[in-house]
Each structure stands twice: as structure tokens, then as C-alpha cells.
Amino acid sequence: MPQHLCIHGHFYQPPRFDPWLEEVLPEASAAPYPDWNQRINRESYDPLGAARILDEHGRIQRIINCYEFINFNFGPTILRWMARHSPATYQKVLEGDRKSIRRFGRGNAMAQIYHHIIMPLTTDEDRELEIQWSIQDFQQRFGRRPEGFWLSETAVSTPDLEALARAGIRFTVLAPRQARAISDSHGNWKEVDESTLPKDRPYLVKLPSGLEISIFFYDGPVSQAVAFENLLSNGEGFWQRITSNDQKLLSLATDGESYGHHFKFGEMALAWVLKRAMQEDSPLSLTNFSAYLDQHPPEQEVLIHEKSSWSCVHGIERWQDDCGCSSGDHPGWNQLWRRPLRRSLNVIRYYVDEHYRHHAQQLFRDPRQAMLDYGKCLSGKVERDEFLRRHQVCELDRSQKAAALKFLEMQRMSLASFASCAWFFDDLGRIEPLNALSYGSRALEMLKDLQGPDVEPLVLEVLEEARSNDPSLGDGPQIWKEQVLPRRIRPAHMAVMGACIQDQESSLSFPGLEFSTRKKENILELDYSWTCLQEQGRETFVLDQEATLDCRVQTGDGKYLALGDLDKKLRDQVLLQLDRAHEQKVLSSLMQAASILGRHRERSFETGQHEPIAGQGILSLGMLMHYLASSEEEDDWSAFWRGVLQNNPQLAFLLKSMLEKELERLCSDGLELWDRAGAMIQKSRKFGVYPDIYHLQNRIWETGLDSFEKNILNSFDFK
Fold first, then answer.
1. Integer Cα distance of 254 and 226 in angstroms
2. Among the listed ranges 71-75, 422-426, 561-565, which one has the minimum average pLDDT value?
């Protein structure tokens, strides 16, 4: 039986942000959520911050923040998204690290390579940049320097360890098959493999520079069981598997998304294990890697397999060649596209670096140091104006400031294109390679804006060697032309988006772009600002008055651009904006009309009548909401609606969505309305509609209002 248990969660999502808007645009495959970040956050990251432990009757016995008890790493890109879109979850993550310091003496959180690039495949300069930006981001968020660092895909080489050690990092975590040999107490070396390596201790790597770094090797079999053997289907089974191990330290390394996203309610199995480990009679104690390293410094050295990783048995070939490793979704498909994809992005990176090296010195006293310090801007620690004052070679005017920031953003976009997920799966036409090419496209656009060379023809020449396994998608240049270039956002695209909003004046705000439009008859005036670049512009467009919704604008070449001409994700974003803008207005009108019908419904039925005359059309949603909000008992009308919802799943979906928003409003307006919210939940369940009340349960648990436990806290069906 192990004496110590350390469970590590590696939390990572591919960088999905649009490189122009700096926002994640809608992804239809993530429905009913707008995008995959939101879906995975709700299924995994959010529940891990408030994981349920149930009693024998299936009722909530305890809610715990798992981040307080597990070792973990989050990438800067997903944390930036979480801080904006799920601040409560974000605070749970930060709180988990703070409390772990009090519990274990050291924090649970580790840093991670900034853009999740494969470090052995990068340059010394980019290796240092990725590490420094990540450290700066970590310090700003967690209020301390990181001690541990998660290498993307645990891909490692000696230069990577040297770079971590130079940055003051104490340790990293690798897969057991990445160990090549270990030393004994006499300094003799013994070759090891995954089955013979003792994994219950840290090891020391003495580097050629004279620096040192420690390495933990996680337990492979139990970690694999979590990921692939459905071990999370039962908390007690998970606990028994853990306690059947006889290592002094049992450390697991798992994808954090396993808990709730890959395996529904997996966070509850984890919470059960944590609860058992915290009991007074527990045979083992929880720890994290930093605390264990304090108590048990390494006594043996280790040699690693150079250029190895945890998810490619061929080393790191998965991220540069057709090695046979893929998701396995399409047997028979090849990955010959991997090498030309990497080469094309390397071409962009080379010219971006060269242009920066030769021309950024006109703006920055020390261009290299300015780029290293730019992570402080990205983390929000330093405002861009202050950053420029510290690094500018002289006083810069507005256009020079925009150029200076564009140089740095060009570098960031180029680096973002190397996120590991672009090569991980099985085809060039997937969203991850398309995103990588989009970041490269944005970098090329900035390069040209900064009077750099036009490298796009050379990039396309390299991409000619890349071909999708789907014949309809074609080769790299076709994919670039049909799926990458349409993502570029120009002022005309902003004008179309603004024209679709029916108000005379409208504004849209994204992290990377803000713009407003004003309509005067058939003229649309546009003001826009690229936020990260501090670059502003103003343009005027002619509206096509005969177009539906006024969504056609005339471009400079005399052609028209319409909503249907935008990239699909951008179109979906416009529709979401319209949906949100008009949702409450429409619902209020529906509720008002439904209340009139509701007051007279006792006279709506005649003898033998089972269906109402009024309310079968657009008022259905409002009438249903009116019924749920009323205190009246079921009658013939409610029986009618049960049948309607059973035969109209779309109406049931809309009702669920509206009900969740109304419940959130009630529970935000005051405690006296919570009982009413509980009654609405109970009535909706009789209709077969089950609103997501997870966050309401959390709020009630935190307030300790037991009087509402029956109505709300235990209304959730965990089956």
C-alpha cells in the first residue's frame, strides 16, 4: 500500500482563439454549448471546483474543490479564456493553489509551456521565450514563481532541461518509459525501462552546464487505467486500485479532462478518492510534487531518452512525420501532411524572426529583452503604454507605438501556430491544423504591414506537398485559399457585422477588436480599434437597401459583401450576438401575452375540449414559462403541454434554456425568491424538463441554507 498519493491533472485545450478577435468563435460540434472551451469547462473544469460526494441515498453529502488536493497545470491560453468566461471556476483554481500551500507547504500548481509547443523541435531562442512568458503569466495569476514545469506532451531533450534549470525550475514530470538509466549509491549506471524503473521517488539530472533539475516519473499502469480503462466509473473501485499499489509514492499523471469530460461524473470518482485519503484512518497521505521533493530529495541520478514523449512511441515523430501515431479515428489514413505543415510554419517563423531582428531595433533599445518581457503585457501585469515607455528607443508617436506592438504580436501569432495539437490527430483538414495555419496567416499579414517580404507564395509552395485524406478538401494551397484566408477580418467584415444589428448605432467588443457602426440612411460609418495593437481606423460604407436585414455593404472595389460571404464561424458569432441581444426582449413580450391567456384559461376549455385554441403558436414558450412561474396546480392544460413537449424536442430545449436563465435571475435577486425557484424546478421535472441547476446547488451549499435542500440542492439527477 502506498504511503503517499499525488494525483496530477494536466489541463490543456488547443488554442482556439481567433487571431484577429482574440476570442473563441462558435464551434457547431460543441452544441449545445457555443464552443468546446465552454463545453469542456462545464463538463470538467467547473465540476472539479465543486465535486459532489453523495451518500447512500444519492443525496449530496459534501462538495469539495479538487484543485485543493491534486497537483495540476493549466496553460496560460486556457486560463486567459477562463478568467473572462468562467471567473468562478478560475477563482476555484487559484483558491486551490492557495489552500494547498497551507495544507502541504507548497502549491499544487505547476507552470506549462506557454503555447504547448514541442520543445525539442524548437530553437534555443523560442525555448527561452516560451518558458519566460509562462513564468510571467504564472506569477501574475498565482502570486508566486512556479517550482515545477509541465513540458508539452512530456516531450523532452537535454536543452529543454537546461532551459528550465536556468529559469530556476526545480522539477518536471515525465513518463516512465522516458528514463534510460539510473545510478545506484556507488555511482554505477543501470539501464531501465517502464517495468523496471522504480517510480516512487524523484531523480536528479546533472546537466552538462553544471546545473541540476529533478524529475518525477508517474505510474504508468494506474494512469493508463484512468485514461483508458474506465477506472473513473466507480470511486470505490478507483480507491481500491490505488491502495493495492505498494510504492512509497504513487503518482498519477492524467489528462484533467478525464474527470467529467472524457468520463461523465469522473470528478465524483476523484472526489471520493480524495475523501477516503483525507479520513483519519486513511493508510496514505495526499501530497504534491513540490512538497514531496522537499521531504524526499533525490538520492539517485537518471539519464533520459533524448527527444522522447508520453504519447508517441517513436519519440517526437508524431509532431513532424507520418510515424503511425494518430487518434485512430480513420484507419488507413496517412499523416504525410505533418512534415510539410511544420516546414511551412517554420518558413513563416524564420522570416518573422529575421524581420524582427533587423528592424525592431529601430523601436526597442533591446529587441530581445523587449520580446522576453512582453509576457508581462500578455498576463496583464504591465499596461502596454508602460511597457513601451520601458523599452522604447525614444519617444514614439501613435503610429510607431502601433508598429512596435505589431512586431511583438507578429511573434506571438507565429509561436501560437506551433501548438502541438496541430499534428496530434489524423488529418490536415481538422480544426487544429486550420487554427495553426490561421495564426501563421495572421503573422504573415502583420509581416507585410511592417514592410516585410511577401512570404505567402513560398509558404504555399511548401504546402503543395501536404494533402488531406479527404479528397474534397484537396491539398494545402486549396485548404489555405478556401478555409484559412476567409478567416481574415477586414473593415468590410466589421461593417457587415454592424449592419446586421438593427439598431441605428451598435458596437461590438472582443478582446482583440472593438468597433462601432452608425447608420444614416444608406451610409454606414465604422470606427474600429485593434486593442492589442492600439491601432485605430475609420471607414465609410454604402449599404444595399434592398438586402435583407441591411447586411450587404459595398466594398472599395465596387463589389458587395454580405453576411453569407463571411467565414462560417464569424456568421455564427453574428447570429449569437443577435440571439443574445433580442432574447430577453422577446421573452418579456411572450410572458406578457401569456399572462393574459393564463388569467383566462379557466374559460378556455369547453366540455370535452382537451386542447386550447390560443397559445399553440409563438406564444407556447411564454405560456409554458408563465405556468412554471405560477402557483397553480396541474390541470387539463398542463397535461396538454406535457404532450406538446414530448413531441417537440426543440420547444423543450428552448424552455430548458429560458428556465435556466430565469432560475439564475431569481437566485441572484434575493434569498426570498429561492423557494420559488425550487418550485419551478419541481414543476418542470413533471414536464420531463431538467434544467441544469449545478451552479444554484453550489450557491446554496456555500450559504448553508438547509431549508432549500429538498427543493434545489438534491434536485439534480446523477444517474
1. 7
2. 561-565
Of residues 454 and 626, more confidently modeled: 454
Pair 293, 76: CB distance under 8 Å: no
| N residues, the chain | 719
For 446, residues 6+ apart whose C-beta sits below 8 A from its C-beta are 406, 409, 410, 413
Contact criterion met (CB below 8 Å) for 224 and 183: no
Same domain, 472 and 386: yes
218 and 107 within one domain: yes
Hey, what's the cell of 487?
478567416
Name the nearest CA neighbour of 480 among 551, 555, 429, 524.
429
Residue 525 above 90 pLDDT? yes
CA distance 228 to 235: 16
Q: Is the dihedral of CA 428, 433, 438, 441 positive or negative?
A: negative
> For 253, what's the count of Cα atoms within 13 Å in the CB-facing half-sphere?
22
Which are the contacts of 438, defined by CB distance < 8 A and separation ≥ 6? 18, 19, 484, 487
**Domain assignment present for 319:** no
How far, in whole angstroms, is CA 28 from its chain's centroid?
16
- Find out whether the peptide bond into 32 is cis, omega within 30 degrees of 0: yes
- Where is the domain boundary, 418, 452, 487? 487
Report whether pLDDT(505) > 50.
yes
Distance CA 373, CA 17 (A): 22
Same domain, 419 and 535: no
What is the C-alpha R_g of the chain? 28
Q: Give the separation between CA 316 and CA 312, rounded to whole angstroms.
A: 6
Place of cell 516560451: 130
What's the CATH number where 65 sits?
3.20.110.20
428 and 553, same domain (yes or no) = no
Question: Nearest CA to 701 among 49, 13, 23?
Answer: 49
Q: What cell was used for 443?
A: 503573422
Helix (H), strand (E) at residue 506: strand 505-509
Q: Which of 296, 301, 311, 124 is nearest to 215 (CA)?
A: 301
User: Does 503 lie in the same domain as 481?
Assistant: no
What torsion, rounded to 10 degrees, do the Cα atoms 506, 510, 515, 520 define?
A: -20
* Structural domain span for residue 431: 338-487
Shared domain for 558 and 654, answered yes or no, is no
End-to-end CA distance of the chain: 32
640-657 per-position pLDDT tens digit: 778 888 888 888 888 898
Please check whether residues 263 and 390 belong to one and the same domain: no
Number of domains into which the chain is organized: 4
- Cα–Cα distance, 12 to 112 (Å, whole number): 9
pLDDT in tens, 312-328: 999 999 999 999 999 88
